[in-house]
Amino acid sequence: MTHRHWLTFAAVFAAAWLGFLAGHKQSDLPTAVAPAALHEAPLIGIASVNADTYVRAVRQAGGIPVILPNYDYDPEAIAGYLDRLDGLLMPGGADIPPAEYGESPHPTIELLDDNRLNFEKALGKAWIEQTKKPLLGICLGSQWINVLKGGSLVQDIPTEIGGNHRATTHLVKLEPNTRLQQIFGESEFEVNSFHHQAVDPSGLGKDLKVAARSPDGVVEATESTDPQRFLIGVQWHPEKLMPADQRQAKLLKAFVEAAAKGQP
Fold first, then answer.
1. Residue 159: which CATH number?
2. Catalytic machinery residues
3. Which pLDDT score is estimated for 264?
4. Burial of 208 (C-beta count, 10 Å sphere; 0-12/13-18/19+)
5. Which pLDDT tens digit goes with each residue over 31-44?
6. Number of structural domains in the chain
7. Residue 7 binned pLDDT confidence (cut-offs 50, 70, 90)
8. Backbone angles phi, psi at 135, to 5 degrees
9. Which residue blocks in the chain are alpha helix, DSSP H?
10. Is residue 57 within 8 Å of 92, Cβ to Cβ?
11. pTM assigned to the model
């Protein structure tokens, strides 16, 4: 069995096991990729997965989810992931230590645990700098992209900007002539919202541009300035809105399709 076939088998088993642990019967899980197509579907690594919604969304978009252990951040392990995975999804979670972007912590900060911090920092940095493979960041994952590209964050929206972005819904307005706007084919729509931090527009990472904002001006999405690279971060949670919201399924499908193209 080749490395890829073994990783494919392990990924499918892990995805089913995660569903079981979450209290789902096997019949409740989303339809898996057909066995005949397993070798063709792209392998999508999910860093530090903390909810089966990410696994479901990747499977529904046609990818094979590979759940990555967040303690596995030695260089050899990272090199293996870069070599064998076709795409990387960085999910939501707690807060990045502000020291990572040269600031002191706001009182509202809830820090990532050390294992996840070290893993996602090492994996995300290597993925961005050493490959051109697709990367989708969701919520915290979006913030990681900006920080790893040398940018900074708004540490607490309510006290620094004003307004609430936690446990609510709001509109996002997509910037014209962006990859994100091309994916959705719309200029604005409503999204869910579970964050108190966001990309600082005055501290945008190198080679990134704002792709969407909320009506109050908070950055809701960024993407690479390189039109050939799928490097997108969104503050909302498209995986939580799937499968009912087929609009959000467009983003995951575009991500998986980009991974299937086999960019180096």
1. 3.40.50.880
2. 139, 237, 239
3. 55
4. buried
5. 444 444 556 899 99
6. 1
7. low
8. -135, 125
9. 3-21, 52-60, 75-84, 114-130, 140-148, 157-160, 179-184, 238-241, 246-260
10. no
11. 0.87
Q: Are 57 and 202 in contact (CB under 8 A)?
A: no
Range of the domain at 201: 3-260
pLDDT band at 108 (very low <50, low <70, confident <90, very high): very high
Average pLDDT, the chain: 88
Query: Chain centroid to CA 251: how far?
Result: 11
Residue 4 has a pLDDT of 54
Q: What gap in Å lies between CA 125 and CA 116, rounded to an integer?
A: 14
Strand 153-154 and strand 198-199: pairing?
A: antiparallel
Q: What is the pLDDT of residue 50?
A: 75
Average pLDDT rounded to a whole number, residues 74-91: 96
Q: Which of 224, 217, 231, 225 is nearest to 259 (CA)?
A: 231
- Supply the DSSP symbol for 33: P
- In sequence order, what are the beta bridge partners of 194? 166
Q: For CA atoms 168, 242, 94, 90, give the dihedral sign.
A: negative
The Cα–Cα gap between 55 and 53 comes to 5
Q: How far apart are CA 198 and CA 6, in angstroms?
A: 38
Helix axes 140-148, 114-130, angle to 10 degrees: 60
Residue 75: strand, helix, or coil: helix
Confidence of residue 19 (pLDDT cuts 50, 70, 90): very low
